[in-house]
Task: structure prediction
Amino acid sequence: MSIITLSGINKVYRTKEIETTALENINLDVNPGEFLSIMGPSGCGKSTLLNIIGLLDKPTAGSVTLLDRNCNNLSDSELSHFRNKNIGFVFQSFHLIPSLNVAANVELPLVYRSGLSAKERRERVEKVLERLEMSHRIKHLPAQLSGGQCQRVAIARAIVGNPSIVLADEPTGNLDSKMGAEVMSLLHRLNKEDGTTIVMVTHNEAQARETDRIVRFFDGRIIG
Amino acid sequence: MKQKLIQLLYDLRHQPIIAWVTLIATAMSIFLIMVVVMMQRVQVVPFSPESCRDRLLLGIYIHAKSTEKSHNNNDGSAGLSYSAARTLYEDLDGVEHTSFITASTEKIDVRGTSGETFALNSRRVDSEFFMIFDHPLIAGRYFTADESASAIPVVIMAETAARKAFGTTDCIGETLSVDHFNYNVVGVVKDNSALAKTGSGELFIVTGPDDPHMDWGNSMNDVNIFGPVAAALLVKEGVDFQSIRDQVKARYAIIDTQLAPEEQETVYHEAPYDQETIATGLRGSNNTPDSSSGRIMRYCIYAILLIVPAINLSSMLHSRMRRRVSEIGVRRAYGCTRMRIITDIIAENFIITLIGGVIGLTLGIIFASTYSGLYEDMNSYGTNITPAMSAVLNWGTVFIAVGVCFILNLISAAIPAWQASRVNPVEAINAK
Result:
């Protein structure tokens, strides 16, 4: 049984003058606990697909089923709650909130989850930062961290809510090779230890080969 | 809350111009609005010597005109004669004290033992006056009922006036020349604000039914109804003002009976009046007060004072939000709903509005309690017209200030917050 099922996904961007097809008839199944890489040249639709899987964008046609739930007809509020509970995001540019310290950044998904006390949230944040060896930076602002540390914090934020799916959009794209390797090793660890399903967009062939499966894109279509 | 304060401090550090301008503009807006509010409120909130304003009713005018069958076309309105005031307002059910006084103060020359002749704002009052208006005694006593009934020449002076006339407040028993007549000083009271239009004065001269100053004599008819007198009524706790008005209205029939041989009749204009009506609704002595138009005008002024700065503050917030688009995208990705975005932005903005509000209110209170020029139009004589601090700083003022902050925040933040909630998360995350 797949955790992610995309059927006949099309995404077309329309303006008054022009119509651009970003995705064309995408069918994809991702198994629970799988680490999947999506590769392809810039502009081929990889990030668009990731945004559709992450319920941040809607397909023009086709259906998105996550954790056995068809997400096409969910309201904006239902989508928010679904994302909060089931999906974690790791971005190329980290996207930590500059005004918040490490703890508050990591806490972010828990803030939007009902039923958790401040104490419970703080305990979860401390636990995940300890696991990612970032406890010593808990009070620091993002501006006081290195790129690798920022991405660790971003990963901590992605997993603090125990999501079933983590979507990583070029997570090592802004890091040097050493830090990139560290982040990849962290993602593999999460995948193995927690059984978290990871879908990663990358340009790095070597990193992609380390994952369970590679899906190659070209001009909005899966070519292999 | 803590995170919102952190965000505010971060904005002050990283967008200093926008953040400081927002804070200062908010403070100035609240200052302006609260000065207008306080100017209005000093006319209605209780403060010494009119600490009883919430139970105070005033009968000030009477209006009479020729009846329809009369060949004359007389129509006149003015203050009350002593006798008309007594007919209409004495011994009403539900009234604790009734005092007959001159409706306004009169400049009058006085001379004490210091030898200097100078003018004081005087008011003729009976012994009941001090049961209604609180004038704390510094020395001596208030007027007795006998003094009032017999028009014994006694006066009570305000502190500064006593010092000027006698060089001291210890002047009980001294003789004060008032307009070339000698009066005995029986009491000295604390100075009071002339903004208390009915209860204030620098010199209180005892008056009663036999005082010739309380009667203007005949003017329009043989039945003398016009004069300088006003009736001040202290209504008992819990008694409805309308029940007093109903009694007074019924008593107009007595005066109509007196006026009937002259082919004249009274016109009733909803007397006696409360403070709100006097402050906003009086339209002269020959019209029925209309508080609603005054109230509407006041609300229009408040609305303009709120909306104009709110538009400016809104554009400031919009600029601040544009720098946080990416953050909003990330928050949306992690499960923040649109409604939560809106409420968070409004709550965050409320903190800055509240800080601005505290600054603005503080400046407003200082200004309103020290700059007497604000009240010149409200006052019949130009001395000591700064209000008591309790008139400008009270829980009502604070409550209104918080309410104004809330409304200002809501008007200024609603549109930017709504726009922020509608951004596409993907575009927001990728925004530079």
Observations:
- Residues 92 and 173 of chain A are 6 Å apart (CA to CA).
